[in-house]
Amino acid sequence: MSITQSSASLFTTATEEKEGAFNARYSLWIKEALDELPHSFTITDPFISGHPIVFASPGFLKMTGYSREEVIGRNGRAFQGPKTNRRSIMEIREAIREERSVQVSILNYRKSGSPFWMLFHMIPVFGNGDGRVIHFVAVQVPISGQKMRNGSGCSELVFGSCRREVCLGSYVHQERALPVECDEQELENWEHCEASESEKLKSAEAVGNVLSVLTRYSEFAGRLVCGKRSCLRVADCLSSSLVISLGRIKQSFVLTNPYLPDMPIVYASDAFLTLTGYKRHEVLGQNCRFLSGVDTDSSVLYEMKECILKGQPCTVQILNYSNRKDKSTFWNLLHISPVRNASGKTAYFVGVQMEASCKDIESKELRPETRQLSVVGAVRVAVRSSFMVTC
Amino acid sequence: MLKIKRVPTVVSNYQKDESADESVGCGRNCLGACCINGARLPLYACKKLDKSGVGEKPVAFLESLVLGEWEDRFQRGLFRYDVTACETKVIPGKYGFVAQLNEGRHLKKRPTEFRVDKVLQSFDGNKFNFTKVGQEELLFQFEAGEDGEVQFFPCMPLDAENSPSVVAINVSPIEYGHVLLIPRVLDCLPQRIDHKSLLLALHMAAEAANPYFRLGYNSLGAFATINHLHFQAYYLAMPFPLEKAPSKKMVTTASGVKISELLSYPVRSLLFEGGSSMQDLSDTVSDACVCLQNNNIPFNILIADCGRQIFLMPQCYAEKQALGEVSPEVLETQVNPAVWEISGHMVLKRKEDYEGASEENAWRLLAEASLSEERFKEVNALIFEAIGCSYQEEELEGTVVEQDNPSGSVNQKSNRTHGGPITNGTASECLVLQ
């Protein structure tokens, strides 16, 4: 990608990239089918770094006031703001981490900056073949202006009819109802805004509809998805929450699984793909030796193998062969270390690559060695915690 | 005078028995006058301005610095054991208490005596303190920056004139990345909260920009091991039960700090959040802590959610222990309810305790540390007075003002149903006393 491209077109390319990843899973016309649904919803991909939105329905765009290009590639956090309840944010984060569904009222902000309350209902979508979470679907149902009441004896159905009138903008004097023209400042300061039963039903219905479309179009593509995990996640498949954590690390690194034959790569960061010039599907499942070539020092390879067998960290300087356009070689200052999971046993090895020419220290930056070790540390934290998820 | 016996956690490789300690010509590369000339550390100076809004999710610079330096010491063998080799699990149940089997954390030594009835004690240079740590245990200097930008200096001399604050490793880590934040280390401040230091801790939480990196504080009498001002922090990428507990708002201060009490949690605690600035939040909590200190009430603090939430937990376990009021089964586990335990992270030294860890056990242990309902109300009254706030318990029909009753029990039975005071965004629920 040349640096002379305008930022607008760069952004478009990124959007297309993310949408491309989405399209690959389903058969043609999936987008059109989803576009026909009236609901506000987004679909996110935990396997792309940053856990971004890869699809946003017209209903969502209308509700928030953003254009498609402004939304694709953003994380859902972008619609939260300073007055969004921290507890709700945590609930959503934890549901993602635990790969389960969640339904929570939360304050979001439109493009204009104006706040609104909505019922956020999110579910994981599982791939049928490998049992892992491949998407999260999130539905947003706006909640009308009802505050949580203490011990209110009124049933929700009574409010239902009142609320319709309220929503239409006319001021209805009810003992407990609120005019819809309430101060935005007020909205922001509400501790909570309880969704009605009917709103909750609406969100469940929307979720069901979206899931149906996804299921149908995945069937056509022969790679079925469903709302329930149908099989235990395959051993060499990382959980979506681990992948999300690893996606925060911007340096080049891989995770390999020493328990699988030939110790294949089970995770490769975006930076690794950029450095080596390979595509993700070309490296996953492969042993790292594809990076070595004719002039790679075999004694260095032997040293690495020894450390791996002993379960010790090591740093070596090794000549690697890239798949970049120029097929250039580069000196890789490679650091390898075993990484344990919550059981205390080694689960993976992490390999952090550093192109030797990048060793110049900029005065205001971390030392390259420190940065390399920070990757190891971040991976340790992620792997240890990801195996502790409650069943 | 109340005392208990316990085995102190070793946080530095230079921490020896209380009795044996030389202070001259040590040759250990410590921070004393003997070695400090020529000491250099990286310096991280954070922004003075508040970080507002939603943080950037990639690993922040400070996080890379902490992790990178920690991993370096890890590989150099500076820690007493590999904490990642310690088995850990989430205890099944509603709260998700986290248990760890760690036989190496607590030494098999004779327990030493700790005075537990005085929250404020003077600094004693003869006892172990952080000027005695080896410089290799220090990771970097940390300060609130002058300008609006983050500044990083890879190799800055440690200058006593600048009153540097440092981040050090805890050689007996509870989790990966366990560090100690020691404000103004060379000033030798005793373990007590002051406004400047708490603000520094908040800055660190905000700069780390990771909700799974919390800072904790134990007062004397609440299981602080060393009477030299320090906070602790580490990474655990899951929520603490304390963070998941529901809360009920009590008041909002004039500076916009919202104070809530936790519901259905074994340790009665307050939650501080909001405020028009980080300084407001920090100052409010500091005022509360100073009040507790002056009233000799031990407490713990947890700084969570990147510095947006501060939990304040007054406790009385040590006092109970000294008076022989703690049940034997709980005592046998030798788990001291310090800030991490109260937050829901239990480090167990015996395999049978780990295997048999349950939510009920955890609850029972923590409940021993909690103040009673009555006492908690009294303490809250003290705190609100110190902050300049008045807490009104409202009923649906009228307003009942809670009386400050120094003799103890508040005889007004609260008539709350679900929500407590009706939240009403515009009216502040706090009377500022003249």
UniProtKB/TrEMBL annotation, chain A:
GO terms for molecular function: photoreceptor activity. The keyword Flavoprotein applies. One of its GO terms (biological process) is response to blue light. The keyword Coiled coil does not apply. Signal peptide: none annotated. Keywords: Chromophore, Flavoprotein, FMN, Photoreceptor protein, Receptor, Sensory transduction. It comes from the Eukaryota. Residues 312-368 form the PAC domain. Gene3D superfamilies: PAS domain. Residues 49-99, 265-287 form the PAS domain. This is LOV domain-containing protein. The lineage of its organism: Eukaryota, Viridiplantae, Streptophyta, Embryophyta, Tracheophyta.
From TrEMBL, chain B:
Keywords: Cytoplasm, Guanine-nucleotide releasing factor, Hydrolase, Nucleotide-binding, Nucleotidyltransferase, Transferase. Residues 241-388 form the GDPGP1-like C-terminal domain. GO terms for molecular function: GDP-D-glucose phosphorylase activity; guanyl-nucleotide exchange factor activity; hydrolase activity; nucleotide binding. It is found in: Cytoplasm. Residues 62-234 form the GDPGP1-like N-terminal domain. Residues 400-427 are annotated as: Disordered. It holds the Pfam family GDPGP1_N. The keyword Nucleotidyltransferase applies. Residues 402-414 have a biased composition (Polar residues). The keyword Membrane does not apply. InterPro entries: GDPGP (IPR026506), GDPGP1_C (IPR058865), GDPGP1_N (IPR058866). GO terms for cellular component: cytoplasm. It comes from the Eukaryota. Belongs to the GDPGP1 family. PANTHER family: GDP-D-GLUCOSE PHOSPHORYLASE 1, GDP-L-GALACTOSE PHOSPHORYLASE 1. This is GDP-L-galactose phosphorylase 1. It comes from Brassica campestris. The lineage of its organism: Eukaryota, Viridiplantae, Streptophyta, Embryophyta, Tracheophyta.
